[in-house]
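Readers of this paper often ask what the protein records in our data store actually look like. Such a record has a labelled line for the sequence and another for the backbone structure tokens. Nothing more is needed to write down the fold, since each code stands for a local backbone conformation. The record that follows is passed on verbatim for readers who wish to inspect the format.
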Amino acid sequence: MRSSSLAQARFRADLGPSLENGPIFNEDIEFLRRFRTRGDEIVFLPLAAVFHHVPDQYQELSWISERAFNLGRGHVAELLTPRFIGKKLFREYTGPTSSPVWEYERAALLNFYFGQLFQFQVLDKPEFNELYYRVLEELGVRSRRDLLCQSASAALNSRPWTRMWREPA
């Protein structure tokens, strides 16, 4: 990407972590999407070294779940449309449902979808509620509330649209 392409470019203020929006994500994805839409060339340099320090806490289920929740929020804030991932994996999974890998996957999906539903509520767009209710039920939101991150749990306990999940099925 040439510096001349970046001259007037700015990250969207409503995406990305801030005091106003909380830890919402997708500002970088949306930023690059604008360049692609405009036809600007983005070059991949496979030999360019990028080092990311990944603290141990980023491998914990609680951190991954919180990140998934906010990634779901960011997707909706950017595109205003639902995004469903992992459905094939979820429906075709044949391994033990108590395995740590499955627990991480299930927690990530639960929180990602709950984050999307939450953001649609923040934007006062309830047209996708029933769709998310079904998906979250499929993933066992009633029986596995322990997999919800802190933000999703707070929403579950305080928002009117979560009333149906406050008591086990």
Residues 3-154 form one domain.
